[in-house]
Structure prediction request, 81 residues.
Amino acid sequence: MDVQLNEASGTASIHYRHGGPGAVLRQAAFAPDRVSFDDYTVDRTDLSFIKDNRRSDWAVVMKLPPIERGQCVKDERERAI
Prediction:
């Protein structure tokens, strides 16, 4: 998935690559060391993330681990608009 974080508006725009809905806008909480939205927490210092599946019935059915960890990649492309 691709995520755009907008601290000024306090939002996270999420785009799922697997053909789900278009961009989904969620409220996000911005702290000096992390950003949290939905079940995700992104570390602002190293861009690692944690997804907490413990409240998700879907994650239980799919037998996902209670906590998933990963690494974000910053998109460095220049935008014309």
About this structure: The chain has a mean pLDDT of 89.
